[in-house]
Fold each of these.
Amino acid sequence: MLLWLATRYMNISNMEPVIERIEVPVQDNTQLLILTEQLGSSQQQVKFLDATIATLSHQVANLETDLENTQAEAKKQKGRAASAHTSKGQILEKWAPFVDHPEIDPEWEAENWSFMGNPIDYIVWDYRKDKNLNLEEGMIYIMDVKSAKAQLSTKQRRIRDLVKAGRVEWREIRLD
């Protein structure tokens, strides 16, 4: 309602005033007094409506300012919440080798976890000391730790797809 009144006022205030000249033959002073009172009353109504519109326009401006401030604060709070989730995720990444979770084999020793950080969090070396047993049972796990509703990045998904497709190769590089 306030916005409509303010809009209406702006539309009206931008219009050229329409002044219509009305000539009324006056037969006596009583009729002249009545017309003068009507004119005065109309002028008072115009002043009252102008004051009301000004007040409403001021209220609308205040509400718009409040809305902008509220939206800015909500954006800041959303950023803070996202930052907190990121921090929580980073902490959980560091503690993953020590956490009891269905995807983590309890026989994996923490010292066999190598933290990579980016784009993959860990490589877990589940190897056996006996060469033949190692070839039969040993595994290398490439893992990424996520918390809450976090998703793999595009790069992480591409790496996951390559690993699952067996597109992994060992290379030994000697630098002299």
Amino acid sequence: MAQPPTSPPYPPPPFGPYGPPVLYPVPPPQSQDTLVRTILVLVIVAVALLALVVFAVVSLFGNIHESPPRPAVAFTNVQMTNGNVSFAVATASERWSRSAYAVNLIVDSTVGTSRPLAASGSATAIVVGSMTVRVTWSDVGGDGTVSPGDGFDVGGNGFPLPAGHSFIFYLIWSASGSIVGSEAWAT
């Protein structure tokens, strides 16, 4: 007996068992502006990093390149007598002639004019605003260098320092203008 005709099997789905592929949005092509902007940002970051490295190296090793290298000087505590002050060199990393130094003062917020350090026993007059202050260096060792034990006296011009003011004394390395030591007090 003849069999009834069977229908042909269903054809497989055209996209496989999972259906048609999902179309994701295609990212827009990168324009020339985006590429230029990216390169510009990278160049700026690289330059900034290079500047930071150079600054760090100069900050850490800048003292090595000074000719001659600057010393570091620390002072004892201020002693006030009759309205004037005195203090001594506690430590000095190197001994250099007084001619390698200058001195300056700040009174309140007014900065004086830097002056070369005078010979031992001679006063260096520093004008700070309308006030003249005299700084006298005493070379205790007699070797002509600023060294431990040497004294500094700071006083008014023939009278005591005026009361009610704050003072900062600076010992300056003349070769570079760098501050190598300082002392602060108030009257």
Amino acid sequence: MDSPTARLPTPIRVGGGAVATSGPLIVPSYSSKALARTSVASTLDNTAEFIAGSVLISAYDIRYYRVDPQRFKVQLIIVDSGGYETLVDEEGKLRGGNADHASFPWSPDLHAETLAAIDVTVPVVAVSYDRTDLAIGDQIVAALSSRSPKFGSAFLLKPRNGERLTIESIAESAAMLRHFDIVGVTEKEAGLTFFERLTFIARLRALLNLNQVDKPIHVFGGLDPFMTPLYFLAGADIVDGLTWLRMALTDTGAHYLPAFAAMIDPMAPLEEIEWRIRRANFSRIVDMQTAIRRFLHSGDYGSLTSSRELSAAIKTVHGQLLRSLQV
């Protein structure tokens, strides 16, 4: 298999037309499920004015949590399907997410109705509704028949209920993915280990290439100073995540937000410092995106981060991935 890095990022087009933006693209996400004691509306009030480039929001939150796409001054808005917000699980509670997310009805019709009401001048990509009762091929057919002509389209690969997502389960229908602008996969459904997830992304890129599907791959939920560069090196073009709201992003990795805030100013109210860190996190995202673009042209792992330890770790894991793909 060819090296996943032997390529420049796939252009991100909306509706098959002009290039909306170019990858690699690191996208800050918003969700009513992000923070336990803070509403998504409050989060937007404290951060939205700093967001530029691109953003990901949920159709569910547009409908029920007063998330207005018009407040963003960006080049691209990705509207997720709402599946994440309607999922209330023990893991989400443990990591601090608000547990009260499945209290409102959500369906394909409500999803379509919410999308139809969006009125913005910037390009919008709508992510397909989760239909995990269907096999991949049938999910694709359903997504094609229900996509909005107003917006670009992203198909989110989902495993059928009770099954794991595999490249083999996608292969038979892979050619049909050319009808979407973006092909997506959630980080957690790409594998049980981080290395399995990287391998899945590399194999997905190879599968799309084999079927002449020249579309960007979006990894949902992979935002992290260590993991994000590796997802791009494996073959992804877009990565998003809520980590920028939950953690402090630095050259050495992602750190527990309250502890990092206390280190910055132990005498100041923690909430005030935490908002300052989140705003700084967005600047960090921009820096990460620029660094990855530099690497894709230079091949210098040192350009990915100023941390020697982190760049060495990225180089090591990337080398392991390339060797495993040659077997």
